[in-house]
Design brief:
There is one protein chain. It is built from 18 helices and 19 strands. By secondary structure, the chain is of the alpha+beta class. It has 3 domains: 174 residues, DNA ligase, ATP-dependent, N-terminal domain (DNA ligase i, domain 1, Orthogonal Bundle); 192 residues, DNA ligase/mRNA capping enzyme (D-amino Acid Aminotransferase, Chain A, domain 1), CATH 3.30.470; 130 residues, Beta Barrel (OB fold (Dihydrolipoamide Acetyltransferase, E2P)), CATH 2.40.50.140. Strands 11, 12, 13, 14, 15, 16 and 19 form a 7-stranded antiparallel sheet that branches. It has a 5-stranded mixed sheet with strand order 1-10-9-2-8, with helices on one face.
């Protein structure tokens, strides 16, 4: 399939407001893909790269687009582009930056103007065409003739609609059989979306199940008879590191079960140890039996995916919670409260925070377990930090934000040396009205552009209140720290830059966080022994 044909299909879907028309156009495009292109094409139509991040940022992409004229006629096939992007992502080591630029320029040189626009938005994650996963699921079902409910179930189990699309488009409904829960084989965990507060969460979900958000390591535990396996969030087998978890699940009366939960180190009074303390148990070369006496772990479960030979992922949150309570004693379950009352929910959150936990999760009572998805059925609420920071520079938006100044570079005041210390970027939390306002203000404050023309430097006068979930060490910024999950809360036009928070304040906050006095930033979705993926927004 020509890249141009897929790019045009994407553009048509973006222009079409009607869901049925979107489904029909997507199905047409999916049917036109060759067998070797189906996984790639389905990923692109969802706005994703199969390779994930490939090391191309806005500046590199912008320079390539400016430095190479567009092709006058289309020649690129979907498979050509997929191979080129894979090669870009595979570049490693000394000189990899130059190699990525060379490969990108060679690809861009073969692309027409339409194709270049599609590729730029795809690589930057800005391909917003209205093809949400539910729409694409229906399109895959229509293109293949398979029942939509079966495609949806398979996608949850696979954690990737693209893999399911490739199978069902090639084999029909029979290709879905391989995408099901198998005891002793891990499935991608369901993840949570953030909510500003409990009021917002309950407004979205109505009556919901509220659970403590623990600052431990996510574990998925499978039992089949006497065999028990424990998997991390990224599905790594960590059974050998967790003998307590194995024993706890092997002691259950049920012979076949799949559980989702947290392994966590607790102090004698029941308060959680800092996340880093829990992680001491997961070194690959450590003796778990020796460490067990020094640093015992507890396990608390919050969901059940299978029990007694019955798969439960498609059951409602209420049914799964009831089954979990039937199979496990309270000591093995995360504390839970069902309510629709914001006041009761707020008190539950305060109690969790007072006990040293990160916050709470609000869970739909009707939603299934959406394996591999950050579904709207789970919302996480944490006590966010806020800082008053200064806008140092800004980048233009793309996609729907084209024409506006969108991505803010944020800095804290350096009271000792003067100037400002950059802490990260964000384009999150902005309404259209805010984007229009900040574009006008920042253009008036503009000092000039970076060499590649992408970054607009501004006079450091505009103060903005930024909410964020925590801080992390980062070599990318001169202060050595970066904000996690930063988003704009409001502009502080009542404050001068001289009144912004200082880098010393930020460092003190990080020190308290590191010492465990405040939330670490890795919660129930933390991974064992791996870096947290949430860096500065860009």
């Amino acid at each position: 399939m020509k890249l141009l044909d897929l790019a045009r299909a994407s553009a048509e879907v973006a222009r079409t407001p009607a869901r049925l028309e979107k489904v029909a156009r997507l199905a047409e495009a999916l049917r036109a893909l060759s067998p070797g292109e189906r996984r790639t094409g389905a990923s692109w139509l969802a706005g994703d790269l199969p390779q994930g991040r490939i090391g191309l940022g806005p500046a590199v992409l912008h320079a390539a687009l400016q430095g190479v004229p567009p092709a006058t006629s289309p020649s690129l096939e979907v498979s050509d582009v997929d191979a080129a992007l894979a090669a870009v992502g595979a570049a490693r080591g000394s000189g990899s930056g130059g190699e990525r630029r060379r490969l990108l320029e060679a690809l861009i040189a073969r692309a027409t103007e339409e194709e270049r626009d599609f590729l730029a938005r795809l690589v930057l994650g800005e391909l917003r065409q209205g093809a949400l996963e539910g729409v694409l699921v229906d399109a895959v079902a229509r293109a293949s003739g398979a029942p939509g409910a079966e495609v949806r179930r398979a996608a949850m189990m696979a954690g990737s609609l693209a893999d399911v699309a490739a199978a069902v488009l090639g084999e029909g409904a029979a290709g879905l059989a391989r995408f099901r829960l198998r005891v002793l084989e891990p499935v991608s965990p369901m993840l949570a979306q953030p909510a500003a507060d409990v009021g917002e969460a309950l407004a979205e979900l109505g009556e919901a199940g509220l659970e403590w958000k623990l600052d431990g390591a996510r574990v998925q535990v499978h039992r089949d008879g006497d065999e028990v396996r424990v998997f991390s969030r990224t599905l790594r087998d960590v059974t050998g590191a967790l003998p307590e978890v194995v024993e706890a699940v092997r002691a259950l009366p049920v012979r076949s079960i799949v559980l989702d939960g947290e392994a966590i180190a607790l102090k004698p009074d029941g308060a959680p140890e800092p996340f880093q303390v829990t992680m001491r148990r997961f070194g690959r070369k450590l003796d778990p039996d020796a460490l067990r006496g020094e640093l015992p772990l507890s396990v608390l479960f919050f969901d059940v995916l299978h029990a007694g030979g019955e798969d439960l992922v498609s059951r409602s949150g209420r049914e799964r919670s009831e089954r979990l309570a039937a199979e496990l004693a309270p000591a093995l379950r995360v504390p839970r409260l069902v309510t629709a009352d914001p006041g009761i929910a707020a008190a539950f959150l305060e109690d969790a925070l007072r006990r040293g936990h990160e916050g709470l999760l609000a869970k739909s009572l009707t939603a299934p377990y959406e394996a591999g998805r950050r579904g709207a059925g789970w919302l996480k609420v944490k006590r966010a930090h806020t800082l008053d920071l200064v806008v140092l520079a800004v980048e233009p938006g793309s996609g729907r934000r084209r024409g506006w100044l969108s991505n803010l570079h944020l800095g804290a005041r350096d009271a000792e040396n003067g100037g400002f210390v950059m802490l990260g970027k964000t384009f999150k939390g902005m309404t259209d009205e805010m984007l229009r306002w900040q574009t006008g203000v920042l253009r008036a404050l503009a000092l000039g552009e970076s060499e590649d023309g992408w970054v607009v430097h501004v006079r450091p006068e505009l103060v903005v209140e930024i909410a964020f979930d925590g801080l992390q060490a980062s070599p990318r910024y001169p202060g050595g720290l970066a904000l996690r999950f930063a988003r704009v809360k409001r502009y502080r036009t009542d404050k001068r830059a001289e009144e912004a928070d200082t880098i010393d304040t930020v460092r003190a906050l990080y020190s308290r966080q590191r010492d465990g006095e405040e939330a670490d930033g890795k919660g129930t979705e933390g991974e064992i022994g791996e870096d947290d993926p949430g860096g500065p927004s860009s």
